[in-house]
Amino acid sequence: MALRDTRFDGDVIPVSFAGNSPDTPDHFITQDGLEYAGNHVIIDLWQASRLNDVPYMEKVLRKVVEACGATLLHIHLHHFTPTGVSGVAVLAESHISVHTWPERQFAAFDVFMCGDAKPELAVPILQEAFAAARVEVNTIRRGLVAEQIREAV
């Protein structure tokens, strides 16, 4: 396990940036030879419907959480007047956030999960649930272990 010194208020603190000890699992992912915190899937839905329906949004978020194998801690959704919904599903594995613009038939979802959860499984569920005609997806690997970044350069 690699140790580094990190300065915080003048103190030197040993911090582990790599390695997953069986005594302290950090739920980082190892995939394609890389170790990182998790996958952040950015999903844009266009020509979508039911984007102003808060109870339906909660139902869909719960379905996504279950399908991705995540652990739901809390959902908070806010309805804007006259239209729009913003909210978050807080997960043990991170979060799902949503912001909708019903007047433009557009919704933006962020699905970030660590560990064994599979955030990519959210895409077909969201596309079907909101009948989106167009879907744009970008995936970001978050928290790439620093040693791997230097080796890749």
Q: How do the strands of the widest beta sheet line up side by side?
A: 6-7-8-9-5-10
Query: Could you give the count of β-strands?
Result: 10
Q: Which shape, going by the Cα principal axes? A: elongated
One letter per element, helices H and strands E, the order comes to: EEEEEHEEEEHEH
Sheet/helix structural class: alpha+beta
Distance between the termini: 22 Å
Uncertain runs are: 1-21
Counting DSSP H or I runs of 4 or more residues, the number of helices is 3
Overall average pLDDT: 86
Account of the 3D structure:
The protein is α+β, with helices and mostly antiparallel strands and 153 residues long. The chain has helices at 54-68, 122-129, 146-152; strands at 3-8, 11-16, 29-31, 34-36, 38-46, 72-79, 85-91, 94-101, 106-114, 134-142. The strands form 3 sheets. The protein has a 6-stranded antiparallel sheet, with helices on one face. A two-stranded antiparallel sheet has the order 1-2. Strands 3-4 form a two-stranded antiparallel sheet. The longest helix has 15 residues, at 54-68. The chain starts with a strand and ends with a helix. Residues 1-21 have low confidence and may be disordered.
